[in-house]
Every structure is written in C-alpha cells, then in structure tokens.
Amino acid sequence: MSDAPEVDRPVVTPVRVVIAACLVAPFVAMLWVGSYAKVEPTFLGIPFFYWYQMVWVLLSTVLTMIAYKLWQRDQRARKEGARS
Q1: Most buried one in 10, 29, 69, 73, CB count within 10 A?
Q2: DSSP per position, 16-56
Q3: CA angle 31–68–24, rounded 5-degree value
Q4: Cα(10)–Cα(82) distance, rounded to whole angstroms?
Q5: 20-61 pLDDT, tens per residue?
C-alpha cells in the first residue's frame, strides 16, 4: 500500500483527437511551404502565396475557437462524471 496520492491520467478520447487536429492543422498548412509557394491562381489580383496565408489566418481563428469550445465541453463532462 502506497501513501502516494492517486493522480488522474490524461485520457485520449475522440474529442481530444479532434481538438488536437484543429490546433495542428494551421501549423502543417503554413510549414508546408511548397504547397503554396506560387503566384497562380490569383484572387482579385492577389497572388496565391498571399491570399492562401490570409485564408489560413481566418481558418486558424475558427479552428482555435472550435477547439476551445470542445475543450470546455469535455472538461464540463469530466467534472460531471467525477461527481457521479
């Protein structure tokens, strides 16, 4: 018998995998420079290189918001589960 306190271990759930994917996707998209290092197609005269990055700024915001809301819901569910 040990006197060490019992510690909850992190659990990998499908929701947490989705959260991780939402947070990792923008990094992968921006670090894979070869996929967007070109001029064509242009959008309203803006080269692809620039508008692709601007679209990812918006997508990153949305994905981070989704990850945050999923994390809040997951934490709320864990607290309610611990009470039961």
Answers
A1: 29
A2: HHHHHHHHHHHHHHHH-GGGT-S-PSPBTTB-HHHHHHHHH
A3: 20
A4: 14
A5: 999 999 999 999 999 888 999 999 999 999 999 999 999 999
Burial of 22 (0-12, 13-18, 19+ CB in 10 A): buried
Partners of 51 in beta bridges: none
End-to-end CA distance of the chain: 26
How much is the pLDDT for 81?
Answer: 79
Question: Contact, 78 vs 52, CB < 8 A?
Answer: no
The Cα–Cα gap between 22 and 68 comes to 10
Retrieve residue 35's tokens: 């996929």
Q: Which of 60, 41, 63, 61 is nearest to 51 (CA)?
A: 41
